[in-house]
Amino acid sequence: MNICYTSYRLKKSITNEKTLVILSASFFEARIGAVVNTINKDFNKRVISLVIPMAIQNLINVGVMAADVIMLGKVGETVLSGASLAGQVFFILNLILFGTTSGACVLIAQYWGKRDIEAIEKIIGISMRLGIIVSIIFTAATLIIPVPIMHIFTSEPEVIVEGVKYLRIIAFTYPMIAITMVYLNLIKSVEKVVIATVVYAASLCLNVILNAILIFGLFGAPAMGIEGAAIGTLCARILELIIMIIYATKVNKEVQIRFLYLWKQDKMLRKDFFHYSGPVIINEMIWGLGYSANAAIVGHLGSSAVAANSVVQVTRQLAMVIVFGIGNATAIMIGKAIGEQKDKIAEIYGKKFVHLALVFGALGGVIILLIRPFIISGLNFTGTTAAYMNTFLLVMSYYVIGQAFNTVIIVGVLRAGGDTKFGLLMDCLSMWCGSIMLGAIAAFVLHLPVEIVYVVLMCDELIKIPFSLMRYKKKKWLKNVTR
């Protein structure tokens, strides 16, 4: 009897324990599910709030370029080629400024996670000072030696003449761009992204209106051609600076520009800034010089190739507006999560952003294919230029997928955790030891057709993909870089 009773109690105890285990497992699964749902909701909400304003901003910037391309294209291919090649100077400056702010954003996003406002304001001061100095150097060089600069990109005298006209006016915009761009890019890292959209929207409206009036001579104004486009851009940059200053001094009281920090700088933060920004600045310079080298190679293939490439590059940027917004959002959200010591959430964010990059990169490629016939017919290009553009757009349809993937991993995920040297190494190898070297050989040694040369020049992003993926999977980027 006792044995039976003991057996009964034992079975009941085991049953109760199993029930408890099942209930506990169910409870923890429910809790984990609730946490995952919370993370997903928070992720989706923050991505939308960050990516949409930045995508609109990128679209506006592309709109400015597209307006110039369309209007100058109506004037003539030589004028369009001159403005496009002269714009390579700003392109290089823009990338140096982007490198400066990208490196600074590594620190700012993580300090924002710690809510260390003083450190953030000091980093803004360091970045602003560097941006102003570099822009003044670019302005001086452009005003003193505009002809030798244009000779780098083309050997056609007519194109050089038009490019010099453009440079002599546009050079004065560089310091204004430096101040505006540094400030607007850095405050994105503290999740203030709408102001940049407002600034660039106002700039676009003014630029398009003035371009139309000054290029074609509307409403009794003289028809100034390429000089009219430069003056329109100059006026737009002045407006950008004015709006930015009003916002920085009157509206944004949380993170401010302290003029003291432009000159008196924290030694430890300056050391950190150059440690993380240095490789990014060099990386962007190398990447920018690589793109300019591509433009120079295309420039020596004739004005038809230059005109076609000018349109195609604008189309590429149009297809990438959302991806570039995703890349910026990646750096902000992952950097903040690491600063808050939430490494697991940062890892989850990284995986989600990589998936988004592939989706929107593929979507960008499809968009290029769909609008290709309308672009060619809309600009009234015929003959050789139209044939080049048809091939270049086809190449760009797959190029944007690789660029989307690499942008989100290298510029977003890796830089957010302070892994800034990998991108430098990758661009050196994939561009200078890959696409540029092979493209130059194809163009000037083997004298291959222009279309084949272009395919070779646009292979760098495909080379990067396996290496970017391996670096991402090693998770060395999950590193807190704040003090």
Explained architecture:
With 483 residues, the chain is an all-alpha fold. The chain has 17 helices and no strands. Residues 27-33 have low confidence and may be disordered. Helix 12 (321-339) runs parallel beside helix 14. It has one domain (50-474). The chain is 86% helix and 0% strand. It has helices at residues 2-75, 77-114, 117-144, 146-153, 157-170, 174-187, 194-216, 226-251, 260-263, 267-299, 303-319, 321-339, 343-378, 383-416, 421-445, 450-457, 460-474.
Keywords:
single chain, 483 residues, mainly alpha, 17 helices, 86% helix
Summarize the structure.
This protein is an all-alpha fold. It is built from 17 helices and no strands.
User: Largest beta sheet, briefly?
Assistant: none
Quaternary state, please?
single chain
- β-strand percent reads under 5%
Please give the share of residues in helix: over 70%
What is the C-alpha radius of gyration, as a whole number of Å?
26 Å
Helix-strand string:
HHHHHHHHHHHHHHHHH
> Structural class of the secondary elements?
mainly alpha
Q: How many domains is the backbone divided into?
A: 1
Distance between termini?
Answer: 72 Å
Identify the overall geometry.
globular
Low-pLDDT ranges: 27-33
Quote the average pLDDT.
83
Could you tell me the number of beta strands?
0
- How many helices? The count is 17
Topology of this structure?
Blueprint: H1 2-75, H2 77-114, H3 117-144, H4 146-153, H5 157-170, H6 174-187, H7 194-216, H8 226-251, H9 260-263, H10 267-299, H11 303-319, H12 321-339, H13 343-378, H14 383-416, H15 421-445, H16 450-457, H17 460-474
